Amino acid sequence: MYKSLIKPIFFRFDPEKVHHFTFGALKFFNRIPGVSAIIRANCQVNDSRLEREVFGLKFKNPVGLAAGLDKDAKLYSELENFGFGFIEIGTLTPKGQPGNPKKRLFRLKEDGGLINRMGFNNGGVEEAVERLKKNKGTLIGGNIGKNKVTPNENAIDDYEICFEALFPYVDYFVVNVSSPNTPNLRALQDKEPLMALLNALQIKNNKKEQAKPILLKIAPDLTDDQLLDIIDIVKETKIAGVIATNTTIGRDNLKSIHQQETGGLSGKPLTKRSTEVIRFLSEKSNKAFPIIGVGGIHSAADAIEKLEAGASLVQLYTGFIYEGPGLIKAINKELLSK
């Protein structure tokens, strides 16, 4: 129904407006008694064989929602109804910010992709915390970043503010230094500033009664030498793992008229590269840490490929928009068939 009826209608309108409309509609319909139960009955695959224990957390299935869709933790419960094993919110910043000027989200229909230059638009971490206080059991990842106006030399302060505010309300953290849409953010991926940032967060983490997993989200555009640095950084800082990968600034072999738009490219054009990064990290580290695989998962086969390349869990974003909720169920069904 989604691909034959709903998607063709949605894809005729501006993608950001459709996003806000969809969020409003999902919130409305899930308030109607019985609707949430109907969605769960049709979408969820509940089987103990799908459960995964990764970095000390128990996931009911290995298919999660990537950061970027529910930036402000407005719809995590409703989205979980579609069958996700976990929901990652954010990227959140200490203060709310509008992000980059519109238009900033583009569908590349011929390529099965999206380009976004949203720019960490969010209402600020404290607003999200108020919503997370109402969580009734959804496994939540908190993706954190810095405000646009914060210079890189003060970036650690922003990440620490988000970390402290979210700590009681999320199950794991993701340090986002790989978005291409905040000026100079990717410079924090260099070894020295990245080590300083992760060590600072780990110091705060280790002072807690029970530390929580911290993961690093990396760009697909890193060279092999930079990926080897990432392996060293994970080992030295003792963070829990890596999310591979964020969006790409590459534009190879695209057909869409939107291919020259600036921003991060996601979806099918990223499938191969993100899997390559997962396999490289897994093999070169001798599977020393868990990897969450994300980037261009549009089918069950895409997800299986990432898991076989070395990912412990996978996340959807663009594939969820193009393929609909049925993709989550298809991946879990395929995992059960193996």
Structure description:
- One of its GO terms (cellular component) is plasma membrane.
- Its main location: membrane.
- Belongs to the dihydroorotate dehydrogenase family. Type 2 subfamily.
- By secondary structure, this protein is α/β, with parallel strands linked by helices.
- It has a single domain, classed as TIM Barrel (Alpha-Beta Barrel).
- It has 12 helices and 13 strands.
- Strand 9, helix 8 and strand 10 form a beta-alpha-beta unit.
- The longest helix is centred in the first third of the chain and has 16 residues.
- The radius of gyration is 19 Å and the shape is globular.
- The mean pLDDT is 97.
User: By CATH's scheme, which homologous superfamily applies?
Assistant: Aldolase class I
Largest sheet: 8 strands, parallel, barrel
Mean pLDDT: 97
Tell me how many strands there are.
13
Distance between the termini: 27 Å
**Run of helices and strands:** HHHEEEHEEEHEHEHEHEEHEHEHH
From the coordinates shown, what is the CATH architecture? Alpha-Beta Barrel
- As residue ranges, the low-confidence spans are none
Share of residues in strands: 15-25%
How large is the count of helical segments?
A: 12
Biggest sheet strand order reads 3-4-7-8-9-10-12-13
Give me the Rg, rounded: 19 Å
Query: Which shape, going by the Cα principal axes?
Result: globular
Question: Class in CATH?
Answer: Alpha Beta
Number of self-contained structural domains? 1
Counting helices, strands and paired strands, the structural category is alpha/beta
Would you give the CATH topology? TIM Barrel
The percent range for helix content is 25-40%
